[in-house]
From TrEMBL:
Organism: Thiocapsa imhoffii
GO MF term list: ATP binding; ATP hydrolysis activity
Protein's UniProt name: Heme ABC transporter ATP-binding protein
Entry annotated with the keyword Transport: yes
UniProt superkingdom: Bacteria
Keyword Protein biosynthesis set for record: no
Keyword terms of this UniProt record: ATP-binding, Nucleotide-binding, Translocase, Transport
InterPro entries noted in UniProt: AAA+_ATPase, ABC_transporter-like_ATP-bd, ABC_transporter-like_CS, P-loop_NTPase
Length: 270
């Protein structure tokens, strides 16, 4: 599993995280929720190894993250950031192919098969010959998704792999928001991959997460199964607005989250 224990992170006198714990297991979709400035992206960067925590420790499959070499770590976890700066005129298929760079020992034919499959999975195969800078923001995000899928496509003998998504739906239309999160859930089916995603949309979190972490001011307010957290008064406390949930009409055991001062008009779930 990917595990963070008692994580703290400070820059000078500014505390961004304090005593935060987090576990992502294989076959599990964990969503991190919280207002702006809660520490969500900082937590993801600590989990990925991009930041070294001030206190606490992160381990991946039982080994401290700092003991993984960068090339091997790149085969075990992939990160989709909020934005990926790339201004050079690479073709889309070349951007996706970059995700295969940690796997140089794999046969070329297999590499190309994975690149093509990752592009199809992310619904960008028809953009393969386009120049990356010419794409819309949403198209670029889907290309970057294909790149990180290609990066961790192969099972390894080092244990489960992990996909870390930092606000992956922010540039996408509604259909592609659901498509991206559905892809992430599909990747869990083999039980050899765990996903952690930072989201802002409470209903997307309710529909796709297995567990939810609630952060506020760098601290963990609540953590647990989606049904428990989505029926929790902590949602209102964390986001500072009234919150009510109703049973989802199509997804058993899931809820729709209604926020704002009109929540009194909603019919609560039974």
């Amino acid at each position: 599993m990917l595990k963070a224990e008692k994580i703290g992170f400070r820059i000078a006198q500014h505390r961004l995280l304090e005593d935060v714990g987090c576990v992502v297991g294989p076959g599990e979709f964990v969503v991190v929720l919280g207002p702006n400035g809660a520490g969500k992206s900082t937590l993801l960067r600590v989990l990925s190894g991009d930041l070294t925590p001030t206190t606490g420790a992160v381990s991946l499959n039982g080994r401290r993250l700092r003991n993984w070499s960068p090339p091997v770590l790149a085969r075990q976890r992939a990160v989709l950031p909020q934005q990926s700066a790339l201004s050079f005129p690479f073709l889309v298929e070349d951007v996706v192919r970059m995700g295969r760079s940690p796997h140089r020992a794999v046969a070329r034919e297999r590499q190309e098969t994975i690149v093509q499959e990752a592009m199809r999975r992310a619904d960008v195969w028809h953009l393969a010959g386009r120049l990356y800078p010419s794409l819309s923001g949403g198209e670029r995000q889907r290309v970057q998704l294909a790149r990180v899928l290609a990066q961790i496509w192969d099972p390894t003998d080092l244990g489960p792999r992990y996909l870390l998504l930092d606000e992956p739906t922010s540039a996408l239309d509604i259909a592609h928001q659901h498509q991206l999160l559905a892809i992430a859930r599909e990747m869990l089916s083999g039980g050899e991959l765990g996903v952690l995603a930072i989201l802002h949309d409470l209903n997307l979190a309710s529909a796709y997460a297995d567990r939810i972490l609630l952060l506020k001011n760098g601290r963990l307010v609540a953590a647990g199964p989606v049904a428990e957290i989505m029926n929790c008064a902590d949602l209102a406390a964390v986001f500072g607005i009234p919150v009510q949930t109703i049973a989802h009409p199509q997804l058993a055991g899931r809820h729709l989250v209604i926020t704002g001062h009109h929540v009194s008009d909603a019919r609560p779930s039974s």
